[in-house]
Amino acid sequence: MKRVYNFSAGPSMLPEAVLRRAADEMLDYKGCGQSVMEMSHRSSEYEGIINSAESLLREVMGIPCSYKVLFLQGGAATQFAMVPLNLMNKNKKADFVVTGQWATKAWKEASRYGETKVIASSKDKTFTYIPELDPSSFSRDADYFHICMNNTIYGTTYQDLPQTGDIPLVADVSSCILSAPLDVSRFGLLYAGAQKNMGIAGLTTVIIREDLIGSAMEITPTMLDYKTHADNGSMYNTPPCYSIYICMLVLDWLKNTVGGLSEMEKINRKKAGILYDFLDHSRLFHGTVVPKDRSLMNVPFVTGNAETDAKFVSEAKAEGFVNLKGHRTVGGMRASIYNAMPVEGVEKLVAFMAEFERKNA
Ligand code: PMP
Q: CA 137 to CA 143: how far, in whole Å?
């Protein structure tokens, strides 16, 4: 069996231990004679799985009890509508920081439901930095303030959170959740698609302060109302059963094998450090992001020559380093080094890059 180092932005690598456990439990989950894919979501076995997923997430992230955890479908992109439908309920206003494509999509979708204000944008420099925020420019009567905390395509991340006072801070944490400790109490709502650090596609997790539930707009479809899912333990309808199961296995790995989010952060800093340090000293490759705003998860880089970039991506693939091509809208390369990418994967990639540089610089 040959496994590659997969640098995809998502869906992405899973810890090998998780894949092995899923394989072991595939035909017969804990003696019940069936796989998790086949069992009723109302069975006691499945209840055990979804309850463990929630309690592990609460424990690993330190989620306060005044927050609900919801296991939903529709991807993070559905949250671009669900957040305004549920939260734009007092003054029908929200503030946005535009730091990339996903942040733009969140802002544009919300603009369909109320008045939005762009507080700052980094579009002028192809989203290669996180703009400075001046709290005096924030709307005092916004129903919420939205950021995309880690910008998957451009490789930027917030080092400091905006000071929004009483205005709920909402963050898309799709590509950084579980990568390091996060103070959940600073947020009104967090959302993330699972297919990067939480498991596989099909599951979207929402962590929402309880007082923000229950005042959705009149037009909100039942399935898009957080209250529907909060009142029914994410079981109003059939949940994404297998995706929640894999998420439970990933959380179990994070807690018991890695040792929690502080340990995970140390490993992620080590991996990112190896790659950024190489880029900072390379004669051929250059990182594209302002150093202070660099992401630990997504590392874009270029050679400055499209042909050399393409040659690198193709030679890397032949050596088992796959999905290094940058996003179709920005070109170059991007190495996504989520939690499940081992340190060894980054070390080997850097050794390959050094060799490529020797031959091509
Ligand atoms: N937000 C961010 C930060 C993302 O990286 C992505 C997907 N790459 C999305 C939103 C969209 O997520 P989904 O495909 O789960 O709808």
A: 15
